[in-house]
Amino acid sequence: MDRVKGLLREFHPIVWSLVVGTVFVRAASSMSMPFLFLYLSNHTGMDLGTIGLTIGAGALAGTVGGFIGGTLSDMFGRRRVMLGALYVWTLVFVGFAFGKSPLFFLLVNVVGGLCRSFYEPVSQALMADVTPPEKRYRVFGLRYTAINVGVAVGPIVGAMLAMTSAALPFLMTAVIYLVYVISLQVMLNVFGIKQIEGQKKEPVSFQRALEVVVRDKAFRLYMVAGTLGAIGYSQMSTTLAKFTEMAVPDGAKLLFAILMSVNAIVVVLMQMPLTRWAENKTPLTSIVVGNALYALGDLGYAFAHSWVMFIVAMVVFTIGEILTFTASDVLIDRMAPENMRGTYYGAKSFSNLGQFIGPWMGGILLASYGGPVLFGVVAVLSMTSSLFQWAGQRAYQQHTGKSINIARNASL
User: Fold this and answer.
1) For residue 85, what are the contacts with CB-CB under 8 A and spacing of at least 6?
2) In degrees rounded to 5, what are phi and psi of residue 365?
3) 3-state DSSP call for residue 166?
4) How far apart are CA 99 and CA 236, in angstroms?
5) pLDDT by residue (tens digit) across 204-227?
6) How many CB atoms lie within 10 A of CB 42?
7) Per-residue CA distances from 36 to 33, 100, 172, 212, 359 (Å)
8) Nearest in space to 362 (alpha carbons), one of 39, 106, 51, 61
9) Which stretches of the chain drop beneath a pLDDT of 70?
10) Domain covering 9-400 in this structure, CATH number
11) Of 192, 245, 198, which Cα lies nearest the Cα of 366?
12) Where are the domains of the chain?
């Protein structure tokens, strides 16, 4: 009990509020969004390429939206941006449940992409705001674990709800989001986030934010790397669902739900041991190894013809995910000026261009050439991403004279 109390006291109550809320929010969204590709394929007359374009449009909107949302949070406060995004996001899921036309789904997904791009980087920036630098790696690890605890539960629940009604998972997601945003608003008011937001040392403007990001060569290279990586990663939540249906027709929906849960369970089980390994390495090392495992996992999908082969490929892919995701967050935190943390986390969403290109390209490749070609291509892109990560590290070292190292005294 004392250990639990000590852990709770280690971080600001707002951090715990966001961590716990992340479990429920990700469980809710993973009940619905991973099945959107199948939902549109089976309930509309849209072809696979158009479905990929529709889903990717949300990520495209988020490419710009993250920078706008992050900068607005530096200018006007994290609280207003997060809460506004969550309230609108609730309505987005209601729209998915009752939508009929392809154009409507496209517009709703664009709004959803904007909401996500506003909320995610701003919540990360707020967690860093109220956490000492030496503890931020642990905070990012907690947030990432919370995401995957939610995702471990969501897909199975979503598959069960979808058996009753295809729209039900989207409606349940909307209800959970509404409850979360109301409770978060209460917490933010109780713990005085307004006062924290009033402690900015320098004013921030869109012009200055854009100038800083554009001039940062290392950041630009990292964004190219992130874009290439996102093209491959996006297949997991889009075309992989359809490919499992094509490769293993019997029980394909359940198989995909299981794959999503396997992804989350592996993260929860392996996050701590892999973090201990990564703490003694640079972020670049973790990302390069992670990208190689992404590629192996993609090749596993390409040649999988049974449940066991898909599950093994997902395990390999997920270990790569663990190594890359938290290291990427730490890398951005080290690069960002103190008063522009929201801007940098938001600008990181420029790499969401890959989340737009990925589903569109993936849908076309899957329809035209099949799964083996699709996942072979994204495996190559994952390896190419490492070259840009290496170039970004060199650019950072040349500019600052130092390497971006993960603090070795931090542990989960």
Assistant:
1) 69, 114, 115, 116, 118, 119, 122
2) -65, -40
3) coil
4) 24
5) 556 666 666 677 788 888 888 988
6) 11
7) 5, 13, 15, 37, 12
8) 51
9) 1-8, 34, 192-213, 249-253, 336-342, 346, 352, 399-412
10) 1.20.1250.20
11) 245
12) 9-400
